[in-house]
Amino acid sequence: MNPDNYLLGRGGAEVERLKRQIVMLASDSDTQLDRIGIKNGERVVDLGCGPGGVLHLLAERVGANGSVLGIDRSNQFAQLARRFVTDCGLPQVEVREGDAYNTRLPKASFDGAHMRLLLVNLPQPGRIVHEFVSLVRPGGWVASFEADYVPHCFDPPLPAWTRLLDAYSAYAQAQGIDLSVGRHLHRLFRDARRSRYPSRRDHSRLPNRPRASLVPIRPDWQCS
Ligand SMILES: C[S@@+](CC[C@H](N)C(=O)[O-])C[C@H]1O[C@@H](n2cnc3c(N)ncnc32)[C@H](O)[C@@H]1O
Q1: How many CB atoms lie within 10 A of CB 97?
Q2: How far is CA 52 from the centre of its chain?
């Protein structure tokens, strides 16, 4: 495995933040996943799933006949994610410890691949995108949900926030991490696609799909 470079660490505060994130970003992720048109029975992978992330949102779309594989670098987070999907009653989800740079999963073995807020926390995002794209069969789908810190500012400026953001940016930069990776996603995916299919033209499309109902999340995973 690559060295563990996760920007935010894995202390108790990060675990709690990621549990809140399951709920806080569910609606945005629902909107994104609805646009993909994920089909019942599909086999999908989620890289950097954290203690739950979107595993339940993917599981409800692939249904009982499909499967979701969550991968996380952290054994602790993988265990939390297993508890989360057990609590949600989702036997179609499996969670494994693994490295997004080199998953060791069979190439072209998934109908779809998803990741959320992984690239903004790790160096060399292009390597991850390359691995990510390689996991999906020709004609399958890939979806990434990423951040860009450009709108994280106040007018008039708030000095305490500016100091915090400057320190965070300097720390990220020292780790080789790009807090603006969101704006580079199209290029990263185009590059990965070109290296996989050198002779194909780009004809990406986003089919519509009706909004699905949410799998209920147990109250202890909700925001306090
Ligand atoms: C910001 S969290 C996002 C979690 C989840 N995707 C979500 O959106 O709630 C990033 C996750 O990536 C995991 N991670 C960090 N480095 C990784 C790597 N090399 N391979 C797989 N997962 C990794 C972390 O342990 C963490 O769970």
Answers
A1: 14
A2: 10
Q: What is the CATH number of domain 12-148+179-208?
A: 3.40.50.150
SS3 12: helix
How far apart (Å, rounded) are the C-alpha atoms in residues 100 and 129?
Answer: 9
Residue nearest atom 11 in ligand 1 by C-alpha distance: 48
Residue 85 has pLDDT above 70, yes or no: yes
Give the number of residues written for the chain: 224
Q: Which residues, at least 6 apart from 5, have a Cβ–Cβ distance to it below 8 Å?
A: 122, 123, 175, 176, 177
Q: How far is the CA of 89 from the centre of ligand 1 (A)?
A: 22
What does pTM read for this prediction? Answer: 0.89
In this structure, the residues whose C-beta lies within 6 A of any atom of ligand 1 are: 2, 6, 18, 21, 47-50, 53, 71-74, 77, 99-101, 116-118, 121-122
d(CA 47, CA 64): 21
- The per-residue pLDDT for range 93-152, each reduced to its tens digit, is 999 999 999 999 999 999 999 999 999 999 999 999 999 999 999 999 999 999 998 878
Domain ranges of the chain: 12-148+179-208
pLDDT digits (tens, 9 = 90+) for 89-106: 999 999 999 999 999 999
Instruction: Report how far ligand 1's centroid is from the alpha carbon of 42 (Å).
Output: 23
